[in-house]
Design brief:
single chain; 15% strand; alpha+beta
């Protein structure tokens, strides 16, 4: 699992128009967004606080199937364990393989 907050992502850009555009988007997202890559999905997932933040990403071309709200993650994960209470907890829950379950990264060559 590789995870970064939207703020960390923005810090990769030098000052300028691109960085300013992402800073405006961060403001629209309420400062809460996590980009997450998981072994069983070929596209990065975005975890955001609510449906308004999800809509802000969709308007900018991110597929809705790649955007999960905290409530959606809670609905999914809550059926199998404790409810994540923050985006960071949700990211960890989405990226971890439950004990006793197969690892979705595929077979390993030894």
């Amino acid at each position: 699992m590789n995870l970064s907050t939207f703020t960390q992502f923005i810090e990769l850009f030098p000052p300028g128009r691109t960085r300013a555009r992402y800073e405006r988007l961060a403001s629209e997202l309420g400062g809460q967004a996590i980009n997450l890559t998981v072994p069983y999905w070929d596209q990065p997932l975005w975890l955001v606080g609510d449906a308004l933040a999800a809509r802000a990403l969709v308007i900018r071309g991110v597929r809705r199937s790649q955007v999960w709200t905290l409530g959606e993650v809670q609905d999914l994960v809550g059926a199998f364990g404790p409810l994540p209470r923050s985006l960071l907890e949700a990211a960890r829950a989405m990226g971890e393989t439950p004990a006793g379950q197969p690892n979705f990264t595929g077979p390993k060559d030894d």
